Amino acid sequence: MNNPYAIGKRIYLRAPTVEDLEGRWHEWFSDPETTQYLIDRFWPNTIELQKEFFQSIQHSQNRLVLSIIDQKTGEHIGVCNLSAINWIHRFADIALVIGEKKYRDGQRALETVSLLLQIAFLRLNLLNLKGGFIESNPLTELIVKIFDFEIVGRDKNLFFFKGNYVDLVHVQLSREKWLDRNPKAIQVQKPQ
Amino acid sequence: MNEIKNKVLDVMSAVFDMDIKDIPDNAAPEVVENWESLSHMNLVLALEEEFQLRFSDEEMMDLLNLPTIISIISGILEARHE
């Protein structure tokens, strides 16, 4: 593993590298299947835009972007982030994309979310995570259920999706609720 | 253990839309064609409902194949009776 920041069973998360830029990262955000449920998904991405993004996150204190790496192959398979981190109220937005289609087995997405929740609640000391997803995104809907995110609101008929206007669903998960399901997490983190 | 295995196989059969006899003992996404993204998530939720439990994040990361699923559920159920 190269510079791991958080380690799961099949994947690990690390800071993005220049080598990631030279791969397929930028292509994921042009691909219609990959971007169909993303909120910003209309313009093609380019390696130049990806480089600009990479530069913009280098010293960011309110956005943590991490590359998702398959442990077995070392392949850069996706990207995830905690963004709009608010250090006063201690909340952030959570998002992920598994860009490489052959790794979309569900397990790696769940591992990524698990690791991001641990990072947010135990390392960054955040109290709430929030997110939004376009209604009719079945995968995110299931992730929301599995991790006990609560639906806290909707923007009605906001997004144009495959010929229809659909809702943007807002979700939130508190550290307290996360700890209910992960009571051992705090014990593991206690200093010796 | 066999009772747990049979219940897990029932759940897998329903989620993956397969006959139980076609689910191998080493069932995993690499060997079961219908075990893909959506079905994996549905499997997690269906197992939680069937066994009336909630997986922790750590346990969820270990739900990689049939043997580990049986082992994790057995562990959770045993811990309940301790």
General description of the model:
The complex is a heterodimer of chains A (192) and B (82). Chain A is an alpha+beta fold. Helices cover 33% and strands 33% of the residues of chain A. Chain A has one domain: 3-Layer(aba) Sandwich (Aminopeptidase), CATH 3.40.630.30. Chain B is mostly helical. The model of chain B has no long low-confidence stretch (mean pLDDT 93). In chain B, helix 1 (2-16) crosses helix 2 and helix 1 (2-16) crosses helix 4. The two termini of chain B are 17 Å apart. Chain B has a single domain, classed as Orthogonal Bundle (Non-ribosomal Peptide Synthetase Peptidyl Carrier Protein, Chain A). The A-B interface holds A 8-10, 104-107, 109-111, 114, 117-118, 138-139, 142-143, 145-147, 181-185 and B 29, 35-42, 44-45, 54-58, 60-64.
Topology:
The complex is a heterodimer of chains A (192) and B (82).
Chain A: E1 4-7, E2 11-14, H1 18-22, H2 25-28, H3 32-35, H4 47-57, E3 64-70, E4 76-86, E5 91-98, H5 107-123, E6 128-134, H6 138-146, E7 150-161, E8 164-174, H7 175-181, H8 184-189
Parallel strand pairs in A: 5-6
Antiparallel strand pairs in A: 1-2, 2-3, 3-4, 4-5, 6-8, 7-8
Chain B: H1 2-16, H2 37-51, H3 57-61, H4 66-81
Helix pairs in contact in B: 1-2, 1-4
In short:
With 192 residues, chain A is α+β, with helices and mostly antiparallel strands. Chain A contains 8 helices and 8 strands; from the N terminus they run ββααααβββαβαββαα. In chain A, strands 1-2-3-4-5-6-8-7 form an 8-stranded mixed beta sheet.
